[in-house]
Amino acid sequence: MARVYKHILPDVRRELGEWRKIAEDIPDPELRKQAIDSMTAKEFHCIGGGVYAAANLDAKAVLLPLIVALQTISDYLDNLCDRSTSLDPDDFRLLHQSMLDAVTPGALPVNYYELREEQEDGGYLRKLVMKCQDCVSRLPSYKLVQEDVRYLVSLYGDLQVYKHIAVDQRETKLLEWWGQHSSRYPELKWNEFAAATGSTLGMFMLFLAASDENLKPSDGRGIRELYFPSINGLHILLDYLIDQEEDAKGGDLNFCSYYENQEDLNDRLLRMVRAARASADQLPFSSFHRMIVEGLIALYLSDPKVRGQAEVRRTVRQIMKGSPLTRVFFWLNSHLIRKAM
Fold it and tell me: How far apart are the first and last CA of the chain?
């Protein structure tokens, strides 16, 4: 945490400050608004991702700009799709091609806005893509993890397409998509698989792994399979847990709403907590990954949104019961970080 306060928080703000300057010059008013809003409202996503750069400060000059740029693309596109002037799945697919291009050195950027009304972003998205490409090409072992990163990015793009199409189509498309993957993840329900695809943490961990010049060819696949679906899934289900009231008011899809009842939700979340902790224990430098898991739990369950939702408060009490000291530490620390922000 000393590293996070000293190196990550100020550097994330510096990186985002540079991207904000570019975003402020976007010609199209809608694209400009969504770019700026995504950085304003979702800064903590980049701070959370930046923890992975804190694990290898020698590579921070590459890891942190990479993590911030890819997370900024993700948050920007999420805003564009959430508040879209389009419901065209082909439009959403083309927008998210930018994330695949970003993690593929040498991929030529295209007009990612071709299928939508708004067009002129002043090169903002292209610059983010090129920044990511430059950074991943400087990671000594990136070739060993590239396909695993692309697998996660591809699933992320699928989710963003299906969750943002017309309301009367999205559940059908999500279930059809799940049908293509269900045999590989028999321990999951469809909504848990979908939630797991929405996390960028596995991507960031693979970037960190690729900063090690001694990485073994088999390590990337092992890391991916331990992060996805358990740690990724816990991350996004906690996010949906605290957003239930907000999403219900806005008519937005929320994967926590698909459980049979509150007891089922609580049982499945506790199962996901146990699975994520077990995965962390199997990873190299397991104490770092346990820190990630306990930090996620503490960060989300200490969110101010929890206070106004009685059912969520009951879930929080059940998950926090008998918490390890690490989780309690991060619970307190999460309040300090929010004050610092």
Answer: 15
Give the span between the Cα atoms of 113 and 314, in whole angstroms: 44
CA atoms of 247 and 82, how far apart (whole Å): 12
Q: Which residue has the tokens 């805003």?
A: 79
Structure confidence by residue, pLDDT tens digits, 290-331: 999 998 988 888 888 888 899 999 998 888 887 777 787 877
Q: Where are the alpha helices (DSSP H) in the chain?
A: 2-3, 9-23, 29-41, 43-54, 60-82, 89-102, 124-137, 142-164, 167-181, 190-197, 201-210, 219-226, 232-242, 244-250, 262-282, 286-301, 310-320, 325-340
pTM check: above 0.85: yes
Q: Is the Cβ–Cβ distance between 203 and 241 less than 8 Å?
A: no
State the Cα–Cα distance between residues 124 and 190, nearest whole angstrom. 35
Give the torsion sign (CA, 73, 214, 146, 181): negative
60 contacts 14 by C-beta, under 8 angstroms: no
Token pair 């067009």: residue: 119
